[in-house]
Amino acid sequence: MAELDKDVIAKAYARWAPIYDLVFGAVFDRGRQASIAAAERIGGRILEVGVGTGLSLPDYSWSNRLIGVDLSAPMLRKAKARVAEHRLTNVDGLAVMDAQHLGFQDAVFDVIVAQYVITAVPDPEATLDEFARVVKPGGEIILVNHLGAERGLRAACEQWFAPLARRLGWRPEFRWERLANWAARHGGVCVVERRPMPPLGHFSLIRFARVGALHT
Ligand SMILES: C[S@@+](CC[C@H](N)C(=O)[O-])C[C@H]1O[C@@H](n2cnc3c(N)ncnc32)[C@H](O)[C@@H]1O
Q: pLDDT class for 216, splitting at 50, 70, 90?
Protein backbone atom coordinates (compact mmCIF):
# COMPACT_ATOMS: atom_id res chain seq x y z
CA MET A 1 0.00 0.00 0.00
CA ALA A 2 1.26 3.51 -0.86
CA GLU A 3 2.85 5.41 1.98
CA LEU A 4 1.66 8.85 3.01
CA ASP A 5 2.71 11.86 1.00
CA LYS A 6 3.90 14.96 2.88
CA ASP A 7 2.00 17.41 0.64
CA VAL A 8 -1.20 15.42 1.10
CA ILE A 9 -0.69 15.58 4.87
CA ALA A 10 0.01 19.33 4.85
CA LYS A 11 -3.14 19.93 2.74
CA ALA A 12 -5.20 17.66 5.00
CA TYR A 13 -4.15 19.53 8.15
CA ALA A 14 -4.69 22.92 6.52
CA ARG A 15 -8.31 21.75 6.12
CA TRP A 16 -8.51 20.33 9.65
CA ALA A 17 -7.03 23.42 11.34
CA PRO A 18 -10.23 25.52 11.74
CA ILE A 19 -12.20 22.64 13.30
CA TYR A 20 -9.41 20.51 14.79
CA ASP A 21 -9.96 21.45 18.44
CA LEU A 22 -13.70 20.84 18.20
CA VAL A 23 -13.32 17.41 16.57
CA PHE A 24 -10.13 16.09 18.22
CA GLY A 25 -9.81 18.18 21.40
CA ALA A 26 -11.71 16.21 24.05
CA VAL A 27 -11.58 12.78 22.41
CA PHE A 28 -7.75 12.63 22.50
CA ASP A 29 -7.28 14.44 25.78
CA ARG A 30 -6.58 11.41 28.02
CA GLY A 31 -3.69 10.40 25.77
CA ARG A 32 -2.30 13.92 25.77
CA GLN A 33 -2.49 14.13 29.57
CA ALA A 34 -0.81 10.74 29.97
CA SER A 35 2.04 11.71 27.66
CA ILE A 36 2.52 15.05 29.43
CA ALA A 37 2.64 13.27 32.82
CA ALA A 38 5.23 10.84 31.45
CA ALA A 39 7.30 13.70 29.97
CA GLU A 40 7.21 15.62 33.23
CA ARG A 41 8.65 12.70 35.17
CA ILE A 42 11.85 13.60 33.30
CA GLY A 43 11.24 17.28 32.62
CA GLY A 44 13.69 19.86 31.32
CA ARG A 45 13.88 20.69 27.59
CA ILE A 46 10.88 19.14 25.86
CA LEU A 47 10.32 19.04 22.11
CA GLU A 48 6.74 18.45 21.03
CA VAL A 49 6.71 17.25 17.44
CA GLY A 50 3.46 17.67 15.50
CA VAL A 51 2.31 20.12 18.16
CA GLY A 52 -0.69 20.98 15.98
CA THR A 53 -2.91 23.69 17.47
CA GLY A 54 -0.98 23.47 20.72
CA LEU A 55 -3.81 21.89 22.72
CA SER A 56 -1.38 20.33 25.19
CA LEU A 57 0.89 23.34 25.72
CA PRO A 58 -1.03 24.98 28.62
CA ASP A 59 -0.92 21.67 30.54
CA TYR A 60 2.87 21.42 30.94
CA SER A 61 4.24 22.78 34.18
CA TRP A 62 6.06 26.09 34.06
CA SER A 63 9.37 24.55 35.10
CA ASN A 64 9.82 22.90 31.69
CA ARG A 65 11.12 24.64 28.58
CA LEU A 66 9.06 23.74 25.52
CA ILE A 67 9.57 23.89 21.78
CA GLY A 68 6.84 22.86 19.35
CA VAL A 69 7.21 22.03 15.67
CA ASP A 70 4.68 21.09 13.02
CA LEU A 71 4.53 20.66 9.26
CA SER A 72 1.32 22.67 8.99
CA ALA A 73 1.51 26.47 9.18
CA PRO A 74 -2.29 26.80 9.67
CA MET A 75 -2.19 24.39 12.67
CA LEU A 76 0.82 26.23 14.08
CA ARG A 77 -0.90 29.63 13.77
CA LYS A 78 -3.53 28.32 16.17
CA ALA A 79 -0.79 27.14 18.54
CA LYS A 80 0.83 30.59 18.45
CA ALA A 81 -2.50 32.24 19.30
CA ARG A 82 -2.92 29.81 22.22
CA VAL A 83 0.56 30.60 23.55
CA ALA A 84 -0.24 34.32 23.42
CA GLU A 85 -3.68 33.88 24.97
CA HIS A 86 -2.37 31.82 27.91
CA ARG A 87 0.88 33.82 28.18
CA LEU A 88 2.90 30.61 28.07
CA THR A 89 6.35 31.98 28.85
CA ASN A 90 7.70 28.41 29.13
CA VAL A 91 7.26 27.98 25.37
CA ASP A 92 10.56 29.01 23.81
CA GLY A 93 9.50 28.59 20.21
CA LEU A 94 7.04 27.23 17.66
CA ALA A 95 8.28 26.53 14.16
CA VAL A 96 7.19 24.99 10.89
CA MET A 97 9.43 21.94 10.57
CA ASP A 98 9.33 18.43 9.17
CA ALA A 99 9.56 15.79 11.89
CA GLN A 100 11.90 13.77 9.71
CA HIS A 101 14.38 16.64 9.31
CA LEU A 102 14.59 18.38 12.65
CA GLY A 103 16.72 21.52 12.64
CA PHE A 104 18.36 20.80 16.00
CA GLN A 105 21.76 19.54 17.05
CA ASP A 106 22.23 16.01 18.40
CA ALA A 107 21.20 15.22 21.99
CA VAL A 108 19.72 18.60 22.96
CA PHE A 109 16.32 17.59 24.38
CA ASP A 110 15.46 15.68 27.54
CA VAL A 111 12.16 14.46 26.10
CA ILE A 112 10.55 14.21 22.67
CA VAL A 113 6.76 14.05 22.73
CA ALA A 114 4.72 13.17 19.64
CA GLN A 115 0.98 12.91 20.21
CA TYR A 116 -1.02 11.34 17.36
CA VAL A 117 1.79 12.05 14.90
CA ILE A 118 3.95 9.01 14.18
CA THR A 119 1.39 7.40 11.86
CA ALA A 120 0.86 10.72 10.03
CA VAL A 121 4.45 11.05 8.80
CA PRO A 122 5.58 9.56 5.46
CA ASP A 123 8.46 7.56 6.96
CA PRO A 124 7.83 6.70 10.63
CA GLU A 125 11.13 4.81 11.08
CA ALA A 126 13.26 7.65 9.67
CA THR A 127 11.31 10.07 11.84
CA LEU A 128 11.97 7.97 14.94
CA ASP A 129 15.67 7.90 14.01
CA GLU A 130 15.53 11.70 14.02
CA PHE A 131 13.82 11.75 17.45
CA ALA A 132 16.54 9.44 18.77
CA ARG A 133 19.20 11.74 17.32
CA VAL A 134 17.98 14.90 19.10
CA VAL A 135 17.14 13.34 22.49
CA LYS A 136 19.86 13.10 25.13
CA PRO A 137 21.07 9.70 26.38
CA GLY A 138 18.90 9.05 29.45
CA GLY A 139 16.02 10.96 27.89
CA GLU A 140 12.80 9.56 26.47
CA ILE A 141 10.75 9.52 23.29
CA ILE A 142 7.08 9.50 24.24
CA LEU A 143 4.42 8.69 21.69
CA VAL A 144 0.70 8.44 21.98
CA ASN A 145 -1.01 7.01 18.94
CA HIS A 146 -3.61 4.81 17.41
CA LEU A 147 -2.21 1.34 16.71
CA GLY A 148 -3.81 -1.07 14.28
CA ALA A 149 -5.29 -4.35 15.51
CA GLU A 150 -3.16 -7.46 14.98
CA ARG A 151 -6.09 -9.58 13.78
CA GLY A 152 -9.88 -9.94 13.73
CA LEU A 153 -12.68 -7.65 12.57
CA ARG A 154 -10.99 -4.43 13.62
CA ALA A 155 -7.87 -5.36 11.64
CA ALA A 156 -10.01 -6.11 8.55
CA CYS A 157 -11.91 -2.80 8.89
CA GLU A 158 -8.65 -0.87 9.28
CA GLN A 159 -7.22 -2.47 6.13
CA TRP A 160 -10.42 -1.66 4.25
CA PHE A 161 -10.45 1.97 5.43
CA ALA A 162 -6.71 2.54 4.84
CA PRO A 163 -6.85 3.90 1.23
CA LEU A 164 -9.47 6.52 2.11
CA ALA A 165 -7.67 7.32 5.37
CA ARG A 166 -4.51 8.22 3.40
CA ARG A 167 -6.38 11.20 1.96
CA LEU A 168 -7.15 12.39 5.48
CA GLY A 169 -3.50 12.00 6.51
CA TRP A 170 -4.10 8.84 8.59
CA ARG A 171 -2.69 5.31 8.61
CA PRO A 172 -5.21 3.21 10.62
CA GLU A 173 -3.55 -0.19 9.97
CA PHE A 174 -0.17 0.84 11.43
CA ARG A 175 0.80 -1.86 13.98
CA TRP A 176 2.90 -2.00 17.13
CA GLU A 177 5.24 -4.44 15.39
CA ARG A 178 6.66 -1.61 13.25
CA LEU A 179 7.64 0.41 16.31
CA ALA A 180 9.07 -2.63 18.10
CA ASN A 181 11.10 -3.57 15.00
CA TRP A 182 12.41 -0.02 14.72
CA ALA A 183 13.58 -0.06 18.35
CA ALA A 184 15.28 -3.43 17.90
CA ARG A 185 17.04 -2.27 14.72
CA HIS A 186 18.10 1.11 16.08
CA GLY A 187 20.01 -0.34 18.99
CA GLY A 188 20.22 2.96 20.91
CA VAL A 189 16.72 2.88 22.36
CA CYS A 190 14.71 0.47 24.47
CA VAL A 191 10.99 0.13 25.01
CA VAL A 192 10.07 1.28 28.51
CA GLU A 193 6.30 1.10 28.34
CA ARG A 194 3.34 0.38 26.11
CA ARG A 195 0.01 1.23 27.77
CA PRO A 196 -3.48 1.12 26.20
CA MET A 197 -5.29 4.44 26.04
CA PRO A 198 -8.83 5.57 25.32
CA PRO A 199 -10.83 5.86 23.19
CA LEU A 200 -11.63 2.12 23.30
CA GLY A 201 -8.05 1.10 24.12
CA HIS A 202 -7.27 1.35 20.40
CA PHE A 203 -4.60 3.92 21.22
CA SER A 204 -1.35 3.44 23.12
CA LEU A 205 1.12 5.43 25.15
CA ILE A 206 4.59 4.28 24.14
CA ARG A 207 7.84 5.25 25.83
CA PHE A 208 11.34 4.61 24.47
CA ALA A 209 14.42 5.40 26.57
CA ARG A 210 17.52 6.68 24.79
CA VAL A 211 20.44 4.60 25.90
CA GLY A 212 24.16 4.47 25.22
CA ALA A 213 26.24 6.57 22.90
CA LEU A 214 24.86 8.65 20.04
CA HIS A 215 23.55 6.67 17.09
CA THR A 216 25.00 7.71 13.72
C1 LIG B 1 -3.47 14.34 14.59
S2 LIG B 1 -2.59 15.84 14.62
C3 LIG B 1 -2.04 15.89 16.30
C4 LIG B 1 -1.83 17.30 16.81
C5 LIG B 1 -1.51 17.39 18.31
N6 LIG B 1 -0.30 16.67 18.65
C7 LIG B 1 -2.66 16.90 19.15
O8 LIG B 1 -2.44 16.12 20.08
O9 LIG B 1 -3.79 17.33 18.91
C10 LIG B 1 -1.11 15.45 13.73
C11 LIG B 1 -0.20 16.63 13.59
O12 LIG B 1 1.04 16.19 13.04
C13 LIG B 1 1.48 17.14 12.09
N14 LIG B 1 2.38 16.47 11.15
C15 LIG B 1 2.09 15.54 10.23
N16 LIG B 1 3.18 15.19 9.55
C17 LIG B 1 4.19 15.92 10.06
C18 LIG B 1 5.59 16.00 9.76
N19 LIG B 1 6.15 15.27 8.80
N20 LIG B 1 6.34 16.87 10.48
C21 LIG B 1 5.78 17.61 11.47
N22 LIG B 1 4.47 17.57 11.78
C23 LIG B 1 3.69 16.73 11.09
C24 LIG B 1 0.18 17.61 11.44
O25 LIG B 1 0.36 18.82 10.75
C26 LIG B 1 -0.73 17.71 12.64
O27 LIG B 1 -0.67 18.96 13.25
A: very low
Spatial neighbors of 26 by CB under 8 A, at least 6 apart, are none
How remote is the CA of residue 4 from the centroid of ligand 1, in Å?
13
Residue having the nearest C-alpha atom to atom 12 of ligand 1: 50
Q: How far is CA 174 from CA 33, 159, 168, 199, 211, in A?
A: 23, 9, 15, 17, 25
pLDDT, one tens digit per residue, over 99-117 is 999 999 999 999 999 999 9
Provide the CA 25 distance to its chain's centre, in angstroms. Answer: 15
How far apart, in whole angstroms, are the C-alpha atoms of residue 175 and residue 49?
20
CA-based nearest residue to 52, from 32, 74, 71, 75: 75
Cβ of 98 below 6 Å from ligand 1:
yes
Which carries the bigger pLDDT value, residue 154 or residue 177? 177
Q: Which of 113, 104, 76 is nearest to 208 (CA)?
A: 113
Determine the distance separating the centroid of ligand 1 and the alpha carbon of 94, expressed in angstroms. Answer: 13
